[in-house]
Specification:
Thiol Ester Dehydrase, Chain A; alpha+beta; 151 residues; 7 strands; homotetramer
Chain lengths: 151, 151, 151, 151
């Protein structure tokens, strides 16, 4: 893929979101590879851009422009590190809905380089209100997630 | 516990390592709580200080001062976020050996505040050589881990 | 200095605050040294603990428990990187008031290892209200800063 | 500018490099704005992509494929924070050569949002060898930098 052809914010294809990223110095550690916690940053970028691509505006939700203010939080994350990403790599974060429930959803995610899977993850996200307590996922999101579940 | 009584680098008690940390601005996000990826930084600080407390010198291992150079890497991490940590909190990272194998070990970890568990995690660590391929864990480490397994 | 003797949150000596830190994996990059942006995290930890040692409660200020809510922000930072800090180093962040004004203050800071200066910085901090606009520094803070200016 | 029109890795225009970025959760702090140290990450992404756009391959330089291995390091950074960037903002990092010397160069940089300057910086970069000691900047880089100096 030519660099110029990479869509800012990624793109949806067959219900999965694809985000292309560069690995910079900030992502690496003294071991010469991407630091293990930083994959979770890549995954979150993927999920944020996935939501945006679905028409979900996280800032409007936080501000309560569509009802009570809600923020998304991660409830659980499991990640397998298969192969290391390195400085200067171009990688791809793929995100999809693995499971949709009323108060949470499980996102499936992969980090790939040249089609090779470097890491796989399942991240459970939920919504909280201003008091930090759980809220149902916003109805439009639940609807979209239900139609997008893939495995 | 008085602030002055907090041991730098944490301390071992009954085979578990306890590290006390402050939550700073860098750890938080716009949601007002600790960003989900940053818990993995706290966990890694706990594991590094646990190894040091056990007499394992990661720098010497990387440099190959005790045989072939090896670096520790995370193979898998599963973490449950139960309650949020917030700016300025004093938290405790507890680390223990949940399972010891020849080429890897599973570390059990918790993040606590005032005795309340905020997050629990299982992190599988392994060793790699200079070529990035798996190596057995250093023998002294395997021995120590075997004697320390607790559940 | 024995590890056990390192004060959590650092300590004031002659108007300067000294905070001892460990360099962890998260702080390093592929170059094998501490990533240049991460020194600003160390500096901010130093400033936060300096304020706490002076009796300034940033959380109470944010919540407006002592008048209008204010948050501290950095207006300017200049930092010279003299020698690299490395993985596993024990370093010290030294913080003092270099200049006190009504609406801002300049903090002098150094990062040292074994008494050798690794980096020097001047950081201008100011206060903002809930609207993001500048506010005078809280009066007790201004008073303390004025008495502590050193060069 | 349509999202799809944003060039991955940014683009050179009149000797200045323009990189468009999204602000994600990871970049923000409890104050609701981008954490001050994280601007330095944005700046470094800009400089790395600037070098790449100029045909400089940092990985090849590190590996010594074009002579002695060298790594770029920051020697000094001064940054003024004018207005805050916020979660979900689309920002632009602009990078140019402000001054070229034999052993170092000063990069001028700005972070902008919708044409408004949020932060300005001057970053002095230099090259170091495997021993961590200073080296002249690689000759092709010096040549390019000399032709690109703008103020």
């Amino acid at each position: 893929m030519a660099d110029g052809a990479v869509a800012f914010g990624g793109q949806l294809r067959d219900g999965r979101h694809h985000l292309v990223l560069r690995v910079y110095y900030e992502d690496t550690d003294v071991g010469g590879v991407v630091y293990y916690a930083n994959y979770l940053k890549f995954l979150e970028r993927g999920r944020s851009d996935f939501l945006r691509a679905l028409g979900i505006d996280q800032v409007a939700l936080m501000r309560g422009e569509a009802g009570e203010p809600v923020t998304f939080v991660a409830r659980r994350c499991e990640i397998d590190y298969l192969k290391p990403a390195r400085f200067d790599d171009v990688i791809e974060v793929v995100t999809w809905v693995a499971e949709a429930r009323g108060a949470s959803a499980v996102m499936g995610q992969e980090v790939r380089r040249d089609g090779v899977v470097l890491a796989t993850a399942l991240v459970t996200i939920a919504a909280t209100g201003a008091d930090g307590r759980p809220r149902p996922l916003p109805r439009p999101l639940r609807h979209i997630f239900n139609t997008l579940v893939c495995r």
